[in-house]
Design brief:
The chain contains five helices and no strands. With 135 residues, it is mostly helical. It has one domain. It is elongated and about 50 Å long. The two termini are 15 Å apart.
């Protein structure tokens, strides 16, 4: 019975943290599909061949999935998941604020900052999932 309550509470907490990602993805899809190839190539950095906004969204979704899978498999404790979700929400908020300040787009510097933060978050997810703390 206790496990059922834990799973229910954790699922509800994950849903609350995932909601901003879903809302952002829904509102940003229209702007991502409206971009032209010229816009995409000028905004692409390095070897990245996809539109930058789409790559950021895909990475956000991937990291959310990694957290959810860690909870589901028992690799993440409730506290670890909450901490990771809070970090993910902070990154999402920063992206929304930066895009709002720049007419829906991220500057190359902002994109690089988001990439660094997502790299840091990815390492934190990995370490939390492999630190021998289990539910």
């Amino acid at each position: 019975m206790k496990n059922g309550i834990k799973v229910s509470l954790l699922s509800a907490a994950l849903a609350v943290f995932a909601l901003p990602v879903v809302a952002q993805n829904t509102s940003a899809q229209g702007s991502a599909t409206a971009s032209t190839p010229a816009t995409q190539s000028s905004a692409t950095a390095g070897a990245n061949t996809q539109a930058p906004g789409r790559t950021i969204r895909q990475r956000q979704e991937n990291q959310q999935d990694r957290i959810a899978n860690g909870v589901k498999s028992g690799q993440l404790t409730a506290g670890e998941a909450a901490h990771l979700e809070k970090n993910q929400a902070r990154i999402n908020h920063q992206i929304r604020a930066d895009r709002q300040a720049n007419g829906g787009k991220l500057t190359p510097q902002e994109r690089a900052q988001v990439n660094r933060e997502q790299n840091r978050q990815s390492r934190q997810i990995y370490r939390a999932k492999h630190n021998d703390k289990h539910q």
